[in-house]
Amino acid sequence: MKNKDIQIRDPFVLPDPAAGKYYLFGSTDANIWGPGTGFDAYAGDNLDDWEGPFPVFRPPAGFYSDTNFWAPEVYAVGGRYYMFATFRRKDNGRLGTAVLAADGPLGPFAPHSPAPVTPESWTSLDGSLYTDESGRPWMVFCHEWQQIGDGEVCAVRLSADLKEAEGELVTLFRASEAPWTTPFVSPRYPDTVNYVTDGPFLFRGPSGSLYMLWASFIDNTYALGVARSESGDVLGPWIHQPEALYRNDGGHGMVFRAFDGRLLLTIHAPNRTPEERPLFMEIEERDGRIGLAEI
What we know:
Elements: E1 9-16, E2 21-27, E3 39-44, E4 51-57, E5 65-77, E6 80-89, E7 95-102, E8 110-111, E9 124-131, E10 137-143, H1 145-148, E11 152-158, E12 165-174, E13 184-186, E14 189-194, E15 198-204, E16 210-218, E17 221-229, E18 238-240, E19 251-257, E20 263-269, E21 277-286, E22 289-292
């Protein structure tokens, strides 16, 4: 399959240099806004040609969600593979990020955390694993705008086994604090001022600076921005780049190192179902900022 053949949102690439394979995960239900069937993945030795789809997760009997299976991110930790993914709970209808686990990158993944590790009373999504320089795992996630109006990016420490949250929740920033975002006008909430946070992802630039990708809207068009931690730590403070990195109706990105050494960004674009496709772009660090590579 080619990229143009793969309908996917929230793409996430796990490179496996030893095997010479890239594994592509994402929200893969044809209608991700409705009942969910699980997650599929793709494998390839380049970023143009893919094998699959491979069914890497199907919910077992009694699973706590049957709708809105979103944004799987897969990490290799201690010889196993852990998937952070968002589900809508059956018991209270709220979104939350849970952790699944498998022995291989193509699964099958099974529930690892007993339930979503985000707060039960919050509508939360897009949890992303970050390991600090002391080796402690954190989850960075969004407290959704639909619940609070001005969406937040939050962080919480996780237990060493990645099964539950530990310690105090910290709000890193609100969507309206970034200079590039504008209010999101939703037909469902026409009388409120909303700012969206989506898809946080942390990575180190070549200089060692800690950056975060996250998505929002500019004039109701999906866009991707970048913030930099002034302290170099997950708790920030986070300084936003004044302009969006990508503003052409695409976002929810992550960054990975290609086998040829390039630093690559992947996003989905356009932000319309069923037209969304994976898009890959080279990025670079210039003067303390992240930008698209100059070709």
